[in-house]
Amino acid sequence: MSIPTIIGFTLSLLLIIGSILELTTNFKIFLHLSGLLMVIGGTLAAANVGFEARYVKQALGNIKAIFFSPKMARGMLTNEVARVIRWGYLLQKSGIQALESDVKSLKSQDAFLAYGVGLVVSGYTGEEVRHMLDNQVETAFQRHTVSVEILKFMASNAPAFGMMATLVGLVVMLDNMDDPAKLGPGMAVGLLGTLYGVLFARLVLMPAAEKAHQRESIIRFRNMLVAEGLVMLAERRSPRFIQDAMNSYLDPAIHFDIDKAPKK
Fold first, then answer.
1. Within its chain, how far is the Cα of 15 from the centroid?
2. C-alpha dihedral, 50 to 55 to 59 to 64, nearest 10°
3. Spatial distance between the Cα atoms of 112 and 143, rounded to a whole number of angstroms
């Protein structure tokens, strides 16, 4: 679990709850199942009509994923530089065959890396490796950000379905004008439907979309970094040149230093 995310989300909720407590202690007035079902049901229905169901399912999975630690953390980029440099030393010492065993082990761990090393092993030039890996990076990013667009689509629709709940509530209220006891429930559906729509969009869907996009952008950057390293391997650049070139993409605080690396 991503502890900072959970702490931040919890503190934000406490602020909202605290502001409500300033007005009332009766939380039950903010709970209305009909309005909530209209907002969530309508938003999901629109998403399933507008997009393929498997992509909608993936988008919903991203909502849960924001509370878990990302696959690619900042410090891991240094490890990627170290890995490519190790391959550079292997090439210098044992030739291209030394990388073939790494390709086999990578296939089940990192498909992109396995594909890239496979291109180097196949003997493509650096420019050819760059072209193919650039295609791989961009197409993978486009595929993985489809769910981001779906979440944004859902966020734009949730308030509209909240307004729909408002209209339904008003219809119910007007239909019961002769019975004052039923006016309250009808008005509650109306007002709470709008509230649920805004909260669902701005507290759940949009933040999930932004975080999913951010994480995919980090993975994209990592893949671009590794791609540059593999291009230099294909060009048979020295390990120190690879280090300096790859470090130029990184924050100085996480630069890899050959001279400080443990000797094996």
1. 26
2. 140
3. 14
Q: Are 155 and 205 in contact (CB under 8 A)?
A: yes
pLDDT in tens, 39-94: 999 999 999 999 999 999 999 988 888 777 777 777 889 999 999 999 999 888 88
Q: What secondary structure letter does DSSP report for 121?
A: H
Query: How many residues are given for the chain?
Result: 264
Query: Considering the entire predicted model, what is its pTM?
Result: 0.81
Yes or no: say if 99 and 87 are a contact pair by the CB < 8 Å rule: yes
Question: Taking the alpha carbons of 104, 107, 109, 114 in that order, is the dihedral positive or negative?
Answer: positive
Contacts of 196 (CB under 8 A, 6+ apart): 35, 36, 39, 40, 162, 165
- Both tokens assigned to 243: 């280090």
Question: Is 245:228 a contact under the CB 8 Å cutoff?
Answer: yes
DSSP-H helix ranges across the chain: 3-21, 33-50, 53-65, 76-94, 100-106, 111-121, 126-144, 146-175, 183-199, 206-234, 239-247
Task: Spell out the residues 6+ positions from residue 157 whose beta carbon is closer than 8 angstroms to its own.
Answer: 42, 43, 46, 47
